[in-house]
Amino acid sequence: MHLALVDPYRSASARAVAVRCRDGSTIVCPDNGVSSLAWAVLGGVAAVRELTNTELWHPNAARSFRGRDVFAPVAAHLSAGAAFERVGVEVD
User: Fold this and answer.
1) 55: buried, middle or exposed (CB in 10 Å: 19+, 13-18, 0-12)?
2) pLDDT tens profile 36-60
């Protein structure tokens, strides 16, 4: 499990994703290119899901603290054994 985050607050933030790599690793990150070199080293991308399941987020998620309120809680759930498919909808 890896969590990578460079997500400056903007009016339109990059979508939040979980990337399952071909070696079995998972990276939770914004879809802004910050992790593209990492997943290349980990064998490439096997599946990607957008972090749309708000049940896995902090209960009072703030728009400006996505690292604390969205990315970190989802990474923690996955590390604790939550199914990858549970984080949200599949994307290309």
Assistant:
1) exposed
2) 889 999 999 999 999 999 999 999 8
> Is the separation of the CB atoms in 92 and 48 below 8 Å?
yes
* Gap between the terminal Cα atoms of the chain: 21
Read off the pLDDT of residues 5-35 as tens digits, 9 standing for 90 and up. Answer: 876 666 567 889 999 999 999 999 998 888 8
DSSP β-ladder status, 16-21 and 45-50: antiparallel
pTM of the model: 0.89
Cβ–Cβ under 8 Å, residues 25 and 65: no
What is the Cα 15 distance to its own chain's centre?
9
What does residue 83 show for φ and ψ, rounded to 5 degrees?
-65, 140
